């Protein structure tokens, strides 16, 4: 993959009060705009300082995807991207000290958008997860009441990605927030997405896989951020493979496909800072891997994050693009 442009940072998102931020899960709003949800955000180019909020939402012009997404607005008053959810960092919520709330994925079903977030004590420490809803194209969000404890399914239901199918179900892969766990698969009727009791796992019991069994790890490994999207005739599962320090794309006929046998393409590789080359897909301290709406198999666009934890800059989201190989079609 090749780098298209920086999506956040100085000279790009200053007008929105965004100097440093990461993630950038994306969907298309009912009104056709791109909606990107970012994580911990600060006014200066780095981590820390004034203007700490998470998550924040930016709106983009879908016509600009090919050449580099152009942001057209944000949540909040004026151009400043305000925090999309009503809480205070490092405050007590439901009897627990909450450091921050981090988005994992956002989708659109009909005229409603759904945002899944992790309510965290800190990085890798999840109190619980919950779903928020927007009925005004991502301009405002409200709690749905759907939530799960951080140790649900042994801690493998913290960081998730989801995508509606043509069969009335939303399919979801999930893992932990510690980047040391494999993947579980779930599904839920689209109209019951905010009913935790309606979710069903994909599990192996008595010699066969079936829905409704306790979920079985569908792919072993050490994974971080995930993104499941239907692109043309395939289900693409893009993931940050923390164990192998790279971003991979799995090409599935269906979410229940055997993940050990489907085509798997490494599209970006992690590297040391002095060896990185964005033109050849070598990115230092990379993570995140979110598919941009409007992508095709020949022109797949991803939002990738980068954080120099030693110097605290770069701390930004970037857009990369490339074609999947023939065997992944």
TrEMBL record:
Family matches, as InterPro entries:
DUF4185 (IPR025442)
The residue ranges of the DUF4185 domain are 10-320
**Which protein, by its recorded name, is this?**
DUF4185 domain-containing protein
């Amino acid at each position: 993959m090749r780098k298209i442009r920086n999506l956040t940072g100085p000279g790009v998102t200053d007008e929105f009060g965004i100097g440093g931020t990461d993630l950038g899960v994306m969907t298309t709003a009912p009104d056709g705009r791109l909606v990107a949800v970012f994580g911990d955000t600060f006014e200066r180019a780095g981590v820390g300082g004034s203007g700490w909020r998470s998550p924040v939402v930016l709106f983009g012009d879908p016509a600009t995807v090919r050449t580099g997404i152009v942001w057209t607005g944000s949540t909040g008053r004026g151009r400043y991207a305000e925090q999309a959810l009503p809480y205070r960092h490092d405050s007590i919520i439901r009897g627990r000290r909450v450091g921050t709330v981090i988005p994992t994925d956002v989708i659109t079903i009909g005229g409603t958008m759904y945002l899944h977030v992790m309510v965290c004590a800190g990085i890798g420490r999840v109190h619980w997860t919950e779903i928020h809803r927007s009925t005004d194209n991502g301009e405002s969000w409200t709690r749905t009441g759907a939530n799960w404890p951080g140790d649900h399914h042994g801690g493998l239901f913290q960081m998730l990605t989801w995508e509606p199918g043509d069969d009335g179900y939303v399919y979801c892969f999930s893992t932990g927030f510690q980047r040391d766990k494999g993947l579980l698969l779930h599904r839920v009727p689209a109209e019951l997405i905010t009913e935790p009791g309606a979710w069903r796992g994909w599990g192996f019991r008595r010699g066969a896989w079936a829905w409704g069994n306790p979920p079985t790890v569908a792919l072993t490994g050490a994974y971080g951020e995930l993104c499941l999207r239907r692109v043309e005739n395939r289900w693409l599962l893009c993931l940050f493979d923390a164990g192998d320090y790279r971003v991979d794309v799995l090409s599935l006929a269906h979410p229940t496909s055997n993940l050990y046998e489907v085509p798997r393409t490494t599209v970006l590789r992690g590297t040391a800072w002095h060896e990185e080359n964005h033109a050849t897909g070598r990115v230092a301290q990379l993570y995140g891997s979110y598919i941009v709406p409007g992508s095709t198999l020949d022109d797949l666009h991803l939002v990738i994050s980068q954080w120099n934890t030693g110097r605290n800059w770069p701390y930004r989201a970037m857009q990369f693009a490339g074609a999947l190989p023939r065997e992944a079609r």
